[in-house]
Design brief:
Layout: H1 2-13, E1 19-22, E2 25-28, E3 33-35, E4 42-43, H2 46-57, H3 65-72, H4 80-100
Antiparallel strand pairs: 1-2, 2-3, 3-4
Length: 102
């Protein structure tokens, strides 16, 4: 388990490229922005950017809360409540940006 945590920690915290794309969704890691066609660009905080990057890296797979916590925060520094709050903020931000286009 410790080896898995170490691999996740290394692979999720060190971005090797400055962008990431899954389907039509584009994540600019350098600018911390999420670009979805026909919508406003969504500016992300550092932790929101790490969350979206982790989700995109595991596209089509189940991503457990522990994997997300390890991707966003150092092991031992995050918890499920922090993750819930992060998802809540991200959903609010996405809905707000989406409603700007209506």
């Amino acid at each position: 388990m410790a080896r898995v945590d170490a691999v996740l920690r290394r692979s999720c915290h060190h971005f090797e490229e400055d962008h990431f794309q899954v389907g039509m969704v584009y994540l600019d890691l350098e600018l911390k922005s999420l670009i979805i066609p026909n919508q406003e660009t969504i500016q992300l905080s550092e932790s929101e950017c790490k969350f979206v990057h982790c989700i995109m890296r595991y596209a089509g797979q189940v991503v457990t809360s522990q994997i997300l916590i390890n991707c966003i925060w150092e092991p031992g520094n995050g918890n499920k409540e922090m993750l819930r709050q992060l998802v809540h903020r991200l959903r609010k931000k996405w809905v707000f940006e989406k409603n700007l286009n209506l």
